[in-house]
Fold these 2 entries.
Entry 1:
Amino acid sequence: MTTTDTTTLNATPPIKSAGSVAHHEGTPVALFQRVQQQFERAAEMLDLAPEVRKILARPACEISVTFPVRMDDGRFETFTGYRVQHNNALGPFKGGIRYHPDVSIDEVRALAAWMTTKCALVDIPFGGAKGGVQFDPSELSRPELERLTRRFIYALGNNIGPDYDVPAPDVGTDARTMAWIVDTYAATLPPQDRHRALAVVTGKPVSAGGSVGREKATGQGVVDLIALWAKDNNVSLSDLSYTVQGFGKVGFWAAHTLNKLGATLIAVEDITGAVRSTEGLNADALAEHVRQTGGVSGFPGAEAISHTEFFEVTADVFIPAAMENQVTAETAGLLNVRLVAEGANGPTTPEGDAVLRERGIEVLPDILCNAGGVIVSYFEWVQNRGGASWDAAEIDRRLQEILASAYQRVMSVSETKGVDRRTAAYAVALSRLEQVYEERGIFP
Ligand code: GLU
């Protein structure tokens, strides 16, 4: 592997590993098994139809491709990429593509299943999928990343498509990656069909058919949800203090948006370490530091703290916006916050969840809290297919509306059934899926 390329096209920090943290405790939980347990808990409560349980227990399709990539020094390396298509009862398969050293088929399966529930919960007409390639993007140059992306998409061939399976950015990928995907996919179509290629992915650069507001959408959605929670709890956003784990796309945009609303960012942790300032950290200056140095560590004016100290910081809200399995029984026991707003997918282990419940720490579960990204992806797909262009105010308004209604549904099930919000969120999603299977029946 060769040089590190930190070139970015936009104002956000480099994608590489800035959104990740390195702490994994014990043996990694089999992630897909965890999703199945979450499904089961909600399915029991709902008395969900057995056939729907069975269908959702396994992904509909799993694709694994191995392909060669020419590296800058002329050598060839082979890479293995996955696309797991979990369910498409509600619409085309939908979900991001992840580039990260920890990518595995188990992780991609879990992430695909979470996309199915996320889209069903917020009621957008998409199913769930996820893709990934196991490697560290910070170790590849930009031309290598481009060649890898193009070969991966070429290898997937017709397994993706605007009406069939629509990828998007995730950890380690961004708008630039999506632009390469459109271009590669288009090249596989006959010339007269190439205009259709635009809607094959979402999260494209705005200048290449993307939607305004897509880049900040996941972070914006996290903030919209925190605002709904704050309103219900009589907390003013200008008095709110918070901490963020992971300062990639989601962590940065959540912090940037919350700071604009007057909230105080007390501490941030990423793969390079953790920093704290009781006076508050400036999210934009921190992003600039990350762009220049590759991580939050060494940010001028902030105090360096340990992983344990980071979790112990007293604040109103903790936003995990990095990788899975970060809120464990141990770290959940350290937290001094009222709310965990899950920007990442799967940041809390079942043991961590139990400790949060015992300690009365509230949770906005991932499939609700980070759904802003896929919702604005849906807006992008609709605009591409209709040749339309919506402005930022319209995107923000529609996003807020969809999230507020999903939040209300989750709160109402949680209250009426007396269950935690994660189970309530799964229950809303599973009922939606059960409804469509009931109405359409199962072929033949
Ligand atoms: N990767 C994001 C997620 O986990 C966005 C997916 C999408 O926009 O399709 O929700």
Note: DSSP finds 15 helices and twelve strands in the chain.
Entry 2:
Amino acid sequence: MSEWTQVAKSDDVPADGTFPATLNGEPVCLYNLDGEIFATHDVCTHGNANLSEGFVVNGYIECPFHQGMFDIRTGEASAAPCTVALKTYPVKVEAGVVWLRQA
Ligand code: FES
């Protein structure tokens, strides 16, 4: 199992917004859904867009390039043109600090 890595403070992640971070050099996007933090890879599986520049809509992230969508909780591609799931990461929050590790 991989090590937990500190990537942000939970206060950095706005409600229903995004926050870009890195995990061992890998770009990740953090989300805050009803106070719970989730993390996916930050690069859309359809193209070279950063999802942290996209829009959170009812638990989904909408890509800023072609409006494809992914389920933030599972990474599942949920709207065309996206068909390949996003990588997701286990998250833990302790004392206001967000930690991630590779799944
Ligand atoms: Fe994200 Fe095309 S790059 S939908």
Note: The pocket of FE2/S2 (inorganic) cluster is lined by residues 44, 46-47, 49, 63, 65-66, 68, 81-82 (CB under 6 Å).
